[in-house]
Design brief:
Pfam family, one: MacB_PCD
Radius of gyration: 32 Å
InterPro entries: ABC3_permease_C (IPR003838), MacB_PCD (IPR025857), Macrolide_Exporter_MacB (IPR050250)
Largest sheet: 6 strands, mixed, barrel
Protein name: Putative ABC transport system permease protein
Number of helices: 14
Main location: membrane
Distance between the termini: 25 Å
Transmembrane segments: 21-42, 307-335, 356-380, 400-423
Strand content: 15-25%
């Protein structure tokens, strides 16, 4: 019997037992669908992170102080300060722009309304490492910081850059005078103000830690959604002049971390080495507690973590496929028993052992293959629905190899679990098979 004829016979057998065939394929459908859905979520997360990284450029370097637990209470060293930032700016020849980072949870209150936001201290070069486009007003230009780097970065921004929809961004005077002003995200505006109410010029109270301060709203960011995977959306952020954050809230020159942009592509690793060398020279006893990394390095580690999740979650789906394969074997054994007389007739008219073997293996592979195709369609459909419903928070992406992997594994499961029933059928004695009732 030719292979195509075996497929025709297999499809005829499936149609003759529609409900049984569907229930047999169900385990394969669920298994393949689960594999594709899990891979799509993980790949979507990775693409989101890569997209966010690419928007900032590949030449961004991060640095922060992370002492081991046993060192946290020893000595008086508190971490990076503005002195370190200024030293790196002077001595690091591969650094184009450097931005100290100072941020934390904040409670924003206006009258009886409040919102738990993320406060971000914005320096003059905040724009160059955290791109913001201003449609109205002016940039927040810091004293003594690299203006060219900020303007160049803004010129290179992509279409989905952040914008100030109403009012202005923070200015140089705000920085120099520790001004009590702020720019708020779209979600904060909607939470604290009525729809037809203009927030510009209004005073809101911001609490960060034990400090509490009234700030005047000078700008509102355009709605952005959750565009920073794994981070707070700009809609939930309140931007405050960096000097105001230090002088009026923290009362310290300590910064949480710093971000820097190196000069040109491919220089990030060398720039990171320069930053580490400078910090090591300034703080030799704490050198091993400084974490210096690049976006490329973070992405490599993220890939390693996602690979582990992908293997573990994919394994759950493959277990479902194995359960489906056991179901296929069970049904094929029943089919061999039901068609014993048919097998005897085929052998009596000249069918060889290999013909019977091919027929039942083909039937098993057809069941699992159709289940695999339906599983691929199911997985694509659910992934698309998840991506549509939660595109900002849980993006999805189904690579072509995931569909091929799911379908190929389903067919392989069908072939593997169909071999034993097929061998059993091929070994039946034709005389005894003809006598079977």
């Amino acid at each position: 019997m030719h292979f195509l004829e075996s497929i025709r016979v297999a499809i005829t057998a499936l149609i003759a037992n529609k409900l049984r065939s569907l229930l047999t394929m169900l385990g394969v459908i669920i298994g393949v669908g689960a594999v594709i859905i899990m891979i799509s979520i993980i790949q979507g997360a990775r693409q989101k992170v890569v997209k966010d990284f690419n928007e900032n450029g590949t030449n961004v370097v991060f640095a922060f102080y992370a002492p081991k637990r046993e060192k946290r209470n020893l000595g008086k060293f508190e971490g990076l300060t503005m002195d370190d930032v200024e030293a790196i700016e002077r001595r690091a020849t591969l650094i184009e722009t450097i931005v100290p980072r100072l941020e934390g949870p904040a409670k924003v209150v206006r009258g009886k309304k409040d919102f738990n936001a993320k406060a971000v201290g914005a320096t003059g070069d905040y724009l160059s490492v955290n791109p913001v486009k201003v449609e109205q007003g002016r940039f927040f230009l810091g004293s003594g910081l690299n203006l060219k780097g900020a303007l160049d970065a803004v010129a290179e921004q992509q279409a989905n850059e952040l914008k100030v929809a109403h009012g202005r961004f923070l200015g140089i005077d705000d920085q120099q005078t520790w001004a009590k002003v702020c720019v708020i995200g779209d979600k904060i505006k909607k939470q604290l103000f009525e729809t037809d109410e203009d927030p510009l010029g209004q005073v809101i109270t911001v609490s960060i830690g034990q400090a509490r301060l009234p700030l005047t709203v000078v700008g509102v960011l355009e709605y952005k959604g959750n565009n920073n995977f794994g981070d707070t959306s700009p809609d939930e952020q309140i931007l405050i002049p960096f000097s105001t954050m230090q002088k009026r809230f923290s009362g310290s020159r300590v910064v949480a971390a710093l971000s820097a942009r190196s000069k040109g592509d491919g220089t990030a690793e060398a720039a990171a080495d320069q930053i580490f060398a400078i910090l090591k020279a300034r703080h030799p006893d704490q050198a091993q507690d400084f974490i210096i990394d690049t976006q490329e390095g973070l992405l490599k580690r993220l890939d390693q973590v996602l690979l582990v999740f992908q293997v573990v979650l994919g394994g759950v789906g493959f277990l479902s496929l194995l359960v489906g394969g056991i179901g296929i074997m069970n049904i094929m054994l029943v089919s061999v028993t039901e068609r014993t007389k048919e097998i005897g007739i085929r052998k009596a008219v000249g069918a060889k052992r290999n013909d019977i073997l091919l027929q039942f293996v083909t039937e098993s592979m057809t069941v699992s293959g159709l289940g695999g195709l339906l599983g691929v369609a199911f997985g694509y459909g659910v992934s698309a629905a998840i991506g549509f419903a939660m595109k900002d928070r849980l993006p999805t992406f189904v690579p072509l190899w995931a569909a091929g992997l799911g379908f190929g594994f389903a067919v392989s499961v069908g072939m593997f679990f169909g071999i034993y029933p097929a061998v059993r059928a091929s070994k039946l004695d034709p005389i005894n098979a003809l006598r079977y009732e």
